């Protein structure tokens, strides 16, 4: 059976698909609406790449492995180009190279990428381009308009007036058909929002608010059905044509109607180029090799079937056929002409986009404002935690209910203090999912040059403070009075202070570990282990006076729970006496034994705790919080 007939039997005809006229999107760019005027590209005429190769070291053999080999291409203003090929062909790697992103860990990248025939600096390239991730890193508790609003504020740092910002947002919402969903929630795990296609269009629109000249899209139709895919690509196509933008997208297996909307196609397999040119020219190219495309067949499926050797019954003949097709393309007139053209691009003066002035306070306040909206709408962030802590307070207050000022209750009081501090900080692991979501948004926005780790870390710290204080206060109002700790206002608010600092330090630890290991299960396990370690060496399980010297000098003094526990102990015992019971047999022999009393200071002496060190302990706690935040910032800064 011939390859053509074999391919015919493997494809079923599409029941329905749109056949688009060639001039369907030939929009006159001079007719763009006033609201879209900021998007018009009148500086970048073309983007070309020549001899792009990527080489990595194979983890098993330790030998060099070629991911991409000598790839050429050129895309002009107003064109939309598809990078297509089977899984593992290198299209995502190529897209990252073209977008000036890291291709792979330890990869060696060769070749040239030119804008108007010149090589721009990294900063200039970032300012004229934008990248849309495969996953929609959107904040589900925001509305569509709010997402666009914060994207504009972060991109322009108050460089735009409110009127201009609204005008741009309205123009983009209209262009991407999102005007009717402007006030709809994007969607959270517990609250349904907009559709998948609308989310993808919003992801693109939020990047266009920065008015890029080039747009890179990683699998823009991934996870969408054929109708939603067509919807997304058609909006992108229309905006690109109307505003003269350059769009390059990696795409896996589009429908016929979606495939026809692309102007150019770069077909990859095994890291090599098998075709580059107009979409309507790919069928004649393969037909000239004897692989005619069957009628009523999705062209994308046909091409991917030809390029994929993973499931071939005869691997050797399939690989040989693929090599033959690649050599045919490499020796074709089109490939030779392409190589000549990209190798002799005339250099033009490249007008750099003026960067937005750095305005850290504006960016921080924008992030805080956005996080505030998220936190009160998304109960997963703090609502569930507040309910959890209140439940924990009720449990603690009823287990250690109405403890008396008697020596028999000294140990239960000590146990309650440990529980109130250690387990509260342990439950900070509940913040991990919310932080990982924030981090995903930060990674996307940093890659597009909106802000850096400093603004993110400051904003994340500030937004957490009021909620942590509310949690501390609510927990204390319930647990403190039910357990009958020292009944004075000063003692109560001192307890609240220690609990608040405890939670701030615990959340800072979560931020550091989750930044270092941004995988939920790993972060959860490591944070739980760290809190278990801190509970073991904080002075309750084993008195600091007899704690093993290794644990004492390596971990005890950097344990934030150490200072919270001893601060709470001093707050409770330093100013309170306990009765020795009806038989007057005091457990500690002191000057008050004759009065059948045990001074709380005697309990503190067993732990070697002293009064008058509150300011010192608070200072150490703040230093630990700062240390965790700085370590978290360093991790975020290093992972560019």
TrEMBL record:
Q: How does it sit in the membrane?
A: Multi-pass membrane protein
Question: Primary place of residence?
Answer: membrane
SUPFAM superfamilies membership: P-loop containing nucleoside triphosphate hydrolases (SSF52540)
Keyword list, A-Z = ATP-binding, Hydrolase, Membrane, Nucleotide-binding, Transmembrane, Transmembrane helix, Transport
Instruction: Report the GO terms under cellular component.
Output: membrane
Q: What organism does this protein naturally occur in?
A: Mollisia scopiformis
Keyword set includes rRNA-binding: no
User: Which spans are transmembrane here?
Assistant: 379-401, 413-436, 457-482, 488-505, 512-534, 617-638
Family to which this protein belongs: Belongs to the ABC transporter superfamily. ABCG family. Eye pigment precursor importer (TC 3.A.1.204) subfamily.
Kindly give the SMART domains that the UniProt entry links to this protein.
AAA
Q: Where in the cell is it found?
A: Membrane
- Please identify the protein, giving its name as recorded: p-loop containing nucleoside triphosphate hydrolase protein
């Amino acid at each position: 059976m011939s390859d053509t007939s074999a391919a015919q039997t493997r494809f079923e005809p599409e029941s329905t698909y749109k056949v688009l006229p060639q001039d369907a999107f030939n929009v006159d760019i001079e007719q763009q609406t006033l609201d879209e005027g900021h998007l018009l590209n009148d500086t970048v005429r073309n983007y070309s790449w020549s001899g792009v190769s990527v080489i990595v070291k194979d983890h098993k053999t330790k030998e060099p492995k070629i991911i991409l080999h000598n790839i050429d291409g050129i895309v002009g203003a107003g064109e939309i180009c598809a990078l297509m090929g089977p899984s593992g062909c290198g299209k995502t790697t190529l897209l990252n190279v073209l977008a000036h992103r890291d291709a792979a860990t330890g990869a060696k990248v060769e070749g040239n990428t030119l804008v108007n025939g010149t090589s721009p600096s990294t900063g200039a390239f970032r300012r004229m381009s934008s990248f849309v991730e495969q996953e929609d890193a959107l904040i589900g508790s925001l509305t569509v308009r709010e997402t666009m609003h914060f994207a504009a504020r972060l991109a322009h740092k108050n460089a735009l007036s409110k009127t201009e910002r609204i005008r741009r947002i309205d123009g983009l919402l209209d262009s991407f058909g999102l005007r009717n969903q402007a006030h709809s929630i994007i969607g959270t795990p517990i609250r349904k929002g907009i559709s998948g296609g609308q989310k993808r269009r919003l992801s693109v629109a939020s990047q266009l608010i920065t008015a890029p000249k080039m747009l890179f899209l990683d699998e823009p139709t991934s996870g969408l059905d054929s109708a939603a895919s067509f919807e997304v690509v058609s909006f992108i196509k229309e905006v690109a044509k109307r505003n003269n933008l350059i769009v390059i997208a990696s795409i896996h297996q589009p429908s016929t109607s979606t495939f026809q909307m692309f102007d150019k196609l770069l077909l990859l397999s095994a890291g090599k180029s098998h075709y580059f040119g107009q979409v309507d020219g790919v069928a004649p190219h393969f037909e000239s090799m004897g692989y005619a495309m069957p009628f009523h067949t999705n062209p994308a499926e046909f091409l991917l079937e030809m390029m994929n050797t993973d499931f071939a019954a005869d691997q050797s003949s399939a690989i040989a056929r693929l090599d033959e097709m690649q050599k045919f393309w490499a020796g074709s007139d089109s490939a030779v002409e392409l190589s000549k053209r990209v190798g002799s691009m005339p250099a033009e003066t490249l007008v750099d986009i003026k960067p937005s002035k750095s305005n850290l306070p504006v960016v921080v306040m924008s992030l805080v404002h956005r996080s505030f909206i998220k936190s009160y709408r998304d109960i997963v962030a703090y609502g569930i935690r507040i309910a959890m802590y209140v439940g924990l307070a009720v449990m603690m207050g009823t287990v250690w209910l109405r403890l008396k000022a008697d020596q028999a209750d000294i140990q239960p009081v000590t146990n309650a203090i440990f529980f109130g501090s250690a387990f509260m900080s342990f439950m900070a692991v509940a913040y991990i999912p919310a932080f990982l979501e924030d981090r995903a948004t930060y990674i996307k926005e940093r890659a597009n040059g909106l802000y850096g780790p400093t603004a993110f870390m400051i904003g994340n710290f500030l937004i957490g403070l009021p909620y942590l204080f509310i949690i501390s206060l609510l927990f204390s109002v319930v647990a403190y009075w039910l357990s009958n700790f020292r009944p004075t206002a000063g003692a109560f608010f001192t307890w609240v202070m220690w609990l608040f600092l405890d939670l701030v330090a615990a959340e800072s630890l979560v931020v550091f570990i989750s930044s270092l290991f941004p995988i939920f299960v790993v972060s959860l396990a490591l944070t739980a282990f760290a809190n278990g370690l801190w509970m073991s060496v904080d002075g309750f399980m084993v008195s600091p006076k007899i704690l093993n010297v290794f644990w004492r000098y390596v971990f005890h003094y950097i344990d934030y729970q150490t200072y919270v526990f001893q601060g709470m102990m001093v707050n409770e015992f330093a100013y309170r006496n306990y009765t020795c019971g009806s038989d007057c047999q005091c457990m500690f022999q002191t000057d008050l034994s004759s009065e059948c009393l045990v001074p709380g200071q005697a309990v503190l002496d067993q732990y070697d705790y002293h009064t008058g060190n509150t300011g010192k302990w608070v200072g150490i706690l703040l230093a630990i919080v700062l240390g965790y935040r700085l370590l978290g910032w360093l991790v975020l800064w290093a992972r560019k």
